[in-house]
Amino acid sequence: MESPGDPPSLAVRERDAPAVGPGDVLVRVAAAGLCGHDAAIMRGVLRRGVRPGVVLGHEVSGRVVEVGGEAASIRVGDAVVSTLTVFCGSCDRCLSGNDYGCPYGRGVGHGIDGGFAELVALAESSVVRVPDDFDLYHACLLSCPIGVSIRAARDVARVRSGETVVVTGAGGGLGAHAALAAAAAGARVLPVTTSDHKAALLERLGMEPILAGEIPFSEMVMALTEDLGADAALDTVGSATFGQSLRSLAQGGRMTLMGEVLGERAKISPAEIMFRQAAIFGSTGASKRHTADALEMARSGSLPPVVARRFALEEAGEAYALMRAGKLFGRALLIP
Length: 336
Ligand SMILES: [Zn+2]
Ligand SMILES: [Zn+2]
Description:
The chain has helices spanning 36-43, 92-95, 136-139, 142-156, 173-184, 196-204, 217-224, 242-247, 270-276, 288-300, 316-324; strands at residues 24-34, 59-67, 79-82, 85-86, 106-107, 119-123, 127-129, 164-168, 188-193, 210-211, 230-235, 249-257, 279-282, 307-312, 331-335. It is α/β, with parallel strands linked by helices. Helix 6 links the parallel strand 9 (188-193) and strand 10 (210-211). One zinc ion binds next to helix 4.
């Protein structure tokens, strides 16, 4: 990314191969997912901690082509997926399995160069091995958005079997996987989308889509739940849907904010939280254990990766525009 904007200034450039430190591995990238996080950096909504001229992309799969002298667990030829950050591995949070929360962590494709490239250097601890029979083009989605969705639905929202869960932005890359994560937990899923086409695809996944339009989706949720409301809401849109997500909740309902597309303010009445006795959580990122769970669930078919389309690296601007316009169901992949 040369400079943020809408559209952003993106360019494909020849660079020297990244330096491989003693604890690093060099990955030849097979595919990299284009995330809302990348789009927020491209638009300039997200600037904090972004390295100037950064190579974006934190959803990276590929094969290891070189290992540093101290890297012992990963070998040349291994198929891997990146974690979302490079972390210290020795602090309390890392040791308790919450490596995403490492205070010394640096975001891949944010604070350090990421995977919208032919080659990326990552710490050995920041890649997870993927079995050879697993599709490498799908593997890039295991940490984000799949691991991220598992964390939000299972660990933060604590979705249980038989509950009703509303998911906003459900046709997008994060939303589609969040809806699948809720379904995998045994919930009745009401995915909200603005597109007929995406609604049909969500219905085919066994969900009961709500087409957002003139009628607030919160009213549709009430109509579909005999006026009880939903047990949980997974909101991947943010300010634009926050109020309606809250108003979709049943008594004691839990709302989890997973994304913020516009970077604006939400207008809510705090009393709506109180009278519903609702809880509001925020969830972002995923740790290595979520990536491992994502691999297991993707292999068993309980949480399949949803790929919208593959784009060449040179088509990143087009992929961004289609994503911004809401034209893609699932994740766009960049293939160097
Ligand atoms: Zn992501
Ligand atoms: Zn740490």
